[in-house]
Amino acid sequence: MEKYKELLKSRLKEKRYYHSLCVADEAKRLALKYGADPDKMYLAGLLHDITKNISDDEQLQTFKKFDIMLSVTEKASPLIWHAMSGALVVEHELGIDDEDIISSIRYHTTGKADMTLCQKIIFVADLTSADRSYPDIEEIRAAANRDLDECIIGILKFTIKDIVSKNKPLHPDTLDAYNYLITERKEVENNGNL
Ligand code: FE
Ligand code: FE
Asked: How far is the centre of ligand 1, averaged over its atoms, from the C-alpha of 185 (Å)?
């Protein structure tokens, strides 16, 4: 773990490094609460933004190196590039072969349909970590302690409204994540009523 911290320190700005430590702590806490592997989630949280501070050019070079073709939406959404390149770097450069860690990093900004527990934990921890402050944070933190799916639905609603209101492109994975959770919850609720 110490060697990863040293590596991150050399790659990230101070504020981003601190954020990574906070997300790691929060991911471990959520893992213990919801029954995931706490050490694994700590490491995923620690590394989730590993390529956040590289230039757009370097991001694009990374995709080229690994033959990743960006969709039109992805090309127009540089903010999600670090999730895609981070997963590549963690797998191929750091040699971490744990699919939970790799995919949690891959989907930490967009989300996706049918997320695993590990993916949900990193998605949520990124927004409930101790360094975060935004208007509805206490509500989101309370939801994270009640029900991860409810928390993610809240985050996705905010994200989708925000992206659309700014005329920015919405990644299909984000919409899929929302549709999946809304439909799945409805089904569970309906079955419960039968
Ligand atoms: Fe990120
Ligand atoms: Fe982050």
From this structure: 27
